[in-house]
Every structure is written in structure tokens, then in C-alpha cells.
Write a structure and sequence with these properties.
Number of domains of chain B: 2
Largest sheet of chain A: none
Strand content of chain A: under 5%
Number of domains of chain A: 2
Radius of gyration of chain A: 20 Å
Shape of chain A: globular
CATH superfamily of the largest domain in chain A: RNA polymerase sigma factor, region 2, helix turn helix motif
Structural class of chain A: mainly alpha
Helix content of chain B: over 70%
CATH class of the largest domain in chain A: Mainly Alpha
Radius of gyration of chain B: 44 Å
Number of helices of chain B: 10
Structural class of chain B: mainly alpha
Number of strands of chain B: 0
CATH architecture of the largest domain in chain A: Orthogonal Bundle
Distance between the termini of chain A: 48 Å
Oligomer: heterodimer
Order of helices and strands of chain A: HHHHHHHHHHH
Helix content of chain A: 55-70%
CATH topology of the largest domain in chain A: Rna Polymerase Sigma Factor, Chain: A
Largest sheet of chain B: none
Chain lengths: 202, 228
């Protein structure tokens, strides 16, 4: 795939060229949106919105990493989706007391351990990781998804997440630390290599 | 737990973001400080787990259609010419209708106000007769001078007459009515036959607008068919 040539023709309004770029990047875009949003349907919507937005604004691409530029539209679409969710919050299911009244402060909300339902859902490592990612603040989650899941370098992450390069370093460190703390609860699900390292150092 | 500065250094070290000297210093600290080594392994484990997360494939293709991005077929250059001529003809046609409708009324109102002023001035000395003469002069003068502008002044007599004659009746000016019935029918007939903008121009403009509009439609349709 001759990416620069495709970008150039897409900038002249050629949709077929842009669709070729979409086919190349769509898995990465969807996966990024999925890890930021934690929901497949929302991630698919965000990915579609991101591609539409990217085509409309491709004339603003002035060279550099196209992947980083594209990821910027993806993070924008994800932030829009998260803002929509905030405007339309879902009513949490709160457990009832024996009298049939809702508990004002359910015990399981204060408990850091997951409910049995959540625990069974997190049986797979992927679910566990997503659970821990969801627990991160959005800006930390975005940075760690771009750097560690997509393997982007610091300058690409800075472009894609609208964050200065200097901030990336500290956000990434905090996000990794929090993730490690969270993943301790899923030690049995972790690949043996990671557990062995843990044991070796202890 | 190490301080956050150390955690940040460890994280950057894993990403190869430290200088060789910083890396060497940190490596020696890791080997001599078990707590720092443990933190290093924690950060490395978190990073490694995320990097080993299997990539998920897109559930469908996200390729775009022209409708999704609001793309329209490219139109030929002549399209903008026809668009301009349609707009030009429409604006001019509207103006001709406006000119033919409004201009005579404005002229008549001006003449009527002159007559009214004459009446007001004359009411002190010459009495109502002076005013009625002025009014008659205002309406009949065009016929004598054949001036086009004054012709227009006479035009709306038929329409404006009721109001005007009502005023004159209220003022008890029977003489003011006398000259009007003679001049008004003639002037009215002249108004109908002599519009400010000739009808032929209106027909030409209408034809231009319709032809240009039709050309725009045809060009757009042919461009859409070619695009498909």
C-alpha cells in the first residue's frame, strides 16, 4: 500500500483511495476505540464517526505520522461518545433491602472487590484488563491504550491524545502503576511469564 | 512504594526514553535496590500484559459511501454560468415587477402631497378653490406637458381617488371633485398601457431564467449519471 499516494488522492476528494486507507487501519481504529470505550457497539459507532470526520478533514493533514493523525480523530470520537454517555447517564441497578426498599449506600459499591457477576465476567484475562482500563481516568486510559496497546511512540501519542509530550511520560507511568495494582486481583489469569517475574523478584 | 519520580523514570526507561547515562544510573540502582527492582517489575508486567492483549478485529467494514460523507457529483464549469444567469434573471424579473407596481404609486403620492400643501397654503387666502385648482393642476399637468414622470403621477388616480376624495369631502371641497372624473379614466387607461418596464423585457427575463434553470437541472442530472 502506497500510503502517501493514497493520502494525496484522498486529499483531492477521492473516496476510493480513502476507503483503501480505511481497510488498512480499521482493525486498529476499532480496537483503540474498544479499549477506550469498553463497549463494542459504541466502539463501532466511534470508529465510523472517526473515519467520516477524518475524510472530511483530511485536507488538514500536513504530513508526519498519518497513524497518529488518524488516532487523533479516533480519540475525539471516543471523547464525544463519552460526553454523550455523561449527558444520558444510565440508572444504576441498586440492590433492595429485605423490605423491598433501595439501599442508600449499597455495600458492594464501596467494596473494591467485584460482585460475583462481575467476577465471572472477568474470568478471561481480556475482560480483566478491560475492567482495569475502565477504572482509569479517561486521559490516562487514552495514553496507555495508544502507547501500550497500539505500540505508538511518545510523539505519536502526544499528537493523538492532544497532550504535550512532557505530560505523556507521567500519565503513562501513573496509568501503568494503577493497572498493575488493579491486575493484582487477577493474578491467576495472568500469563505465567508475568507471574514468574513477580516470583523471581520477591 | 517508591516515589513517583522513580516510577516515572522506570516507565520511561522501559520505553527507551532515557539517555544512555540516565539508563546506566537507573540500571545500577535497580540492581542494588530490591524495592526499586520490584517496582520496575510491576511496571514492566503491566506494560507487557497490555502489549500481549490480542488485537480485536473490526466487526464490519467501515468503508465510506458518498452519501455518508455528503459528497456531490462534480459539476461542469458551465453549471456556474447557468446558475448565475438564473439568479440574475430572477432578481431582475422581481425588480421589474416591483418597479411597475411601486413606482407609479410613489409618484402619485408625491403629487398628492404637493396638492395637499397647496391646499394648506391656499386655505388662508384663496380658500378651498385654490387647493382644488392645485389638485387639478397636479393631475392634469401631465396631460399638458406629456412628461413621463408626471404621467405616472396621474396613474394611480383611480386607486387613490377614494381616499383623496374622502378627504376633500371631509373638507367640503366640492370643486375638487370636478376635474378628477374627467382626467382619471384617461390617465388610468394610459397607466395600463404604459408600464415603467416594458412587458417584453419581463418575458425575455422569464425565458432566460427558465432556460438557465432547465440547463442547470440537465447538467446536474447528467453529472449524477456519469458519477454512478
Amino acid at each position: 500500500m502506497d500510503e502517501p499516494a493514497l493520502i494525496q488522492t484522498a486529499q483531492r476528494g477521492d473516496l476510493d483511495s480513502f476507503n483503501t486507507l480505511i481497510l488498512h487501519y480499521q482493525d486498529m481504529v476499532f480496537h483503540t476505540a474498544l479499549r477506550i470505550l469498553g463497549d463494542e457497539d459504541q466502539a463501532a459507532d466511534a470508529a465510523q464517526e472517526a473515519f467520516i470526520s477524518a475524510f472530511r478533514s483530511i485536507s488538514t493533514f500536513r504530513g508526519g505520522s498519518f497513524k497518529a493523525w488518524l488516532m487523533r480523530t479516533v480519540t475525539n470520537a471516543c471523547y464525544d461518545e463519552l460526553r454523550r454517555q455523561k449527558r444520558r447517564p444510565t440508572t444504576p441497578l441498586e440492590p433492595d433491602t429485605e423490605d423491598g426498599e433501595e439501599m442508600d449506600s449499597p455495600r458492594w459499591l464501596a467494596d473494591p472487590n467485584m460482585t460475583p457477576a462481575q467476577q465471572s465476567e472477568a474470568d478471561e484475562l481480556e475482560h480483566a484488563i478491560q475492567h482495569c482500563l475502565d477504572a482509569l481516568p479517561t486521559e490516562f486510559r487514552t495514553v496507555v491504550v495508544l502507547a501500550d496497546i497500539q505500540g505508538m511512540d511518545y510523539s505519536e501519542v502526544a499528537t493523538a491524545s492532544h497532550v504535550p509530550l512532557g505530560t505523556i511520560k507521567s500519565r503513562l507511568a501513573r496509568a501503568r502503576l494503577r493497572l498493575r495494582e488493579c491486575l493484582r486481583g487477577f493474578e491467576e489469569l495472568l500469563p505465567s511469564s508475568f507471574r514468574l517475574e513477580e516470583e523471581r523478584t520477591s | 512504594m517508591k516515589n513517583f519520580r522513580d516510577i516515572e523514570q522506570l516507565s520511561a526507561y522501559l520505553d527507551g526514553q532515557l539517555s544512555p547515562s540516565e539508563s546506566a544510573r537507573l540500571e545500577s540502582r535497580i540492581s542494588s535496590d530490591p524495592e526499586l527492582a520490584s517496582a520496575f517489575n510491576d511496571i514492566r508486567a503491566a506494560r507487557g500484559i497490555l502489549r500481549k492483549l490480542p488485537a480485536r478485529k473490526a466487526p464490519r467494514n467501515f468503508t465510506l459511501t458518498r452519501q455518508m460523507v455528503g459528497l456531490k457529483p462534480p459539476l461542469p464549469r458551465s453549471y456556474s454560468f447557468f446558475r448565475f444567469s438564473t439568479a440574475f434573471a430572477t432578481v431582475l424579473l422581481t425588480l421589474t415587477f416591483a418597479a411597475n407596481t411601486v413606482m407609479p404609486r410613489i409618484s402619485f403620492n408625491a403629487a398628492a402631497s404637493v396638492a395637499q400643501e397647496a391646499y394648506n397654503l391656499g386655505s388662508g387666502g384663496g380658500g378651498p378653490e385654490v387647493a382644488s385648482e392645485a389638485l387639478a393642476a397636479a393631475t392634469e399637468a401631465p396631460a399638458a406637458t406629456e412628461a413621463p414622470a408626471m404621467d405616472m403621477a396621474a396613474i394611480p388616480t383611480a386607486e387613490a381617488l377614494p381616499t383623496f376624495s374622502a378627504d376633500t369631502t371631509a373638507l367640503e371641497l366640492p370643486t375638487a371633485k370636478e376635474p378628477l372624473p374627467e382626467s382619471a379614466p384617461q390617465d388610468q387607461a394610459r397607466v395600463k398601457s404604459e408600464a415603467v418596464i416594458p412587458v417584453i423585457w419581463q418575458i425575455i427575463l422569464l425565458a432566460l431564467g427558465l432556460v438557465s434553470g432547465l440547463m442547470m437541472f440537465l447538467l446536474r442530472r447528467s453529472a449524477a449519471q456519469k458519477w454512478k
